[in-house]
UniProtKB/TrEMBL annotation:
It comes from Bradyrhizobium erythrophlei. The keyword Transmembrane helix applies. This is MFS transporter, PAT family, beta-lactamase induction signal transducer AmpG. The chain crosses the membrane at residues 33-58, 65-85, 105-123, 130-150, 170-193, 205-223, 302-322, 329-350, 356-382, 394-415, 421-442. InterPro entries: AmpG_permease/AT-1, MFS, MFS_trans_sf. Keywords: Membrane, Transmembrane, Transmembrane helix, Transport. NCBIfam families: 2A0125.
Length: 456
């Protein structure tokens, strides 16, 4: 494989002076970066509610591992969101677009619908009807993915080049915090409701109701934000076109521009596979920890405390890596680290119920995953350049990235049953190899140099 190249983004000799460090910290306090940070929290919050948190609820309700594994298919909207992203790019929402703007209007609508779908999921009971749970979870995923379409476009369009890296690091860190709140935070809430004398089914319901209320953080942020200037200009440029024409141009322009690039298919395959190692292991992490003998509160406490710290440190470490090295070298670092981290779970499976082993495994997973995600988001952002269809292009890329989490990971439960936990997590390391081979190919073809440097 080609060795990582660090030359194209080596830092200048003044990169580590005290003034540059102060400037680097100050950029995280810019209003636009703070807006992106809170929107990142809003984007990360719902993912676990139809994912790992729901899987723990189902496992406690007695649903078998095979069915739980198939619930990865609930994430289908994340892989198909590019189909309706042109609507988000081109159509105006009655009242909301006029009152709040092209991006903010869609953002508010998607958040209100997301709250409603989470409340519907709260009313389900996995022990009685897995089909109804799947339907409600599918709605949550659909509304969440629509919110992601808008937030991604808003982030790319609202941040100037000097703030893009800080915005990516803040977004990813807040996204992971949102996921931790809806995993560990939700589990603590359920336990607290049970401790107050509420039945387990009702405790889960109120836990999800509380999570729905937290979506309002994103709603308040959207109200406080201003419409991105590139979005205003793009909307003005197409104001004389019919709705159908705008949708058609958003769809065809986004796809044709990308597919006409050199090595476009290899780049798309790389997008699908880069986070697959994370997705394959992550889809079974929660059931694994519960099966191993840890309590719900053990898992929640470690994820909430150590996992949160590791996520924050990993997110900003990913920003440092992107600043220090070329995009290709950064992807090598992130790709290898997130793959190797799976071995910590193999070790945990061998040693059994050991609090320190669980701490190490969760720390390794969150730290390396955050590094890989920040770098991956930097790569995806570099691929999106035109404000006329930012939402559509970014949705296409993130939808493809979700293929690993949704379809390729749907059989993880059956693999775990067939191999046992230690070997399963070793297999999770091996599945990273195809993405690294594609990274080698794209690096040799000059793909990353053609994108230009990622300014940090």
């Amino acid at each position: 494989m080609t060795a990582p190249d660090t030359a194209s983004q080596a830092p200048s000799s003044s990169a580590d002076t005290p003034s540059s460090w102060r400037d680097g910290l100050a950029v995280y306090l810019q209003p636009r970066v703070l807006i992106v940070l809170f929107l990142g929290f809003s984007s990360g919050l719902p993912l676990a509610l139809s994912g790992s948190t729901l899987l723990i609820w189902m496992r406690e309700a007695g649903v078998d591992l095979g069915t739980i594994g198939l619930f990865a298919l609930v994430g289908t909207p994340y892989t198909l969101k590019f189909l309706w992203a042109p609507l988000v790019d081109a159509l105006h929402v009655p009242f909301f677009t006029h009152a709040f703007g092209r991006r903010r209007g869609w953002l508010l609508v998607s958040q209100l619908l997301l709250i409603g779908s989470i409340l519907l999921l709260a009313l389900t009971d996995p022990a009685r009807s897995a089909a109804f749970v799947a339907f409600a979870a599918l709605l949550v995923a659909a509304m969440s993915s629509t919110q992601d379409i808008v937030v991604d476009a808003f982030r790319v369009e609202s941040l100037p080049e000097s703030e893009q890296a800080a915005g990516m690091a803040a977004y990813v860190a807040a996204y992971r915090i949102g996921m931790l709140v809806s995993t560990a935070g939700a589990l603590f809430l359920v336990s607290a409701y049970e401790g107050a004398g509420i039945t387990r089914t009702s405790a889960w319901m109120w836990g999800y109701v509380t999570m729905a209320a937290l979506v309002l953080i994103g709603t308040v942020t959207a109200l406080a934000a201003t419409e991105p200037e590139p979005s205003v200009r793009a909307d003005a440029a197409t104001s004389t076109q019919t709705a159908f024409t705008r949708v058609l141009h958003a769809a065809t322009g986004a796809f044709s521009e990308f597919l006409l690039r050199q090595d476009a298919l290899a780049a798309l395959a790389f997008v699908v596979l880069f986070k697959f190692t994370d997705a394959f292991s992550g889809s079974m992490t929660a059931p694994f920890v519960i099966d191993l003998g840890f309590s719900r509160n053990d898992y929640a406490a470690i994820v909430k405390g150590v996992g949160l710290a590791a996520t924050l440190i990993g997110g900003f470490a990913g920003g440092f890596v992107a600043r220090r090295y070329s995009l290709a070298a950064s992807l090598w670092i992130g790709g290898v680290l997130q793959a190797v981290a799976n071995l910590s779970f193999s070790w945990l499976a061998i040693v059994g119920v050991n609090q320190w082993a669980l701490v190490l495994a969760i720390t390794a997973e969150n730290f390396t995953s955050a590094i890989g995600t920040v770098i991956f988001v930097a790569y995806l952002s570099a691929l999106c350049r035109n404000p006329l269809h930012t939402a559509t292009q970014y949705a296409l890329l993130t939808a493809l990235a979700a293929v690993g989490r949704t379809y390729l990971s749907s059989g993880a439960g059956y693999v775990a049953k067939a191999t046992g936990w230690p070997l399963f997590f070793a297999i999770c390391v091996v599945v990273a190899v195809p993405s690294l081979l594609l990274l080698t190919y794209l690096q040799r073809r000059g793909h990353f140099e053609a994108l230009g440097p990622i300014k940090v």
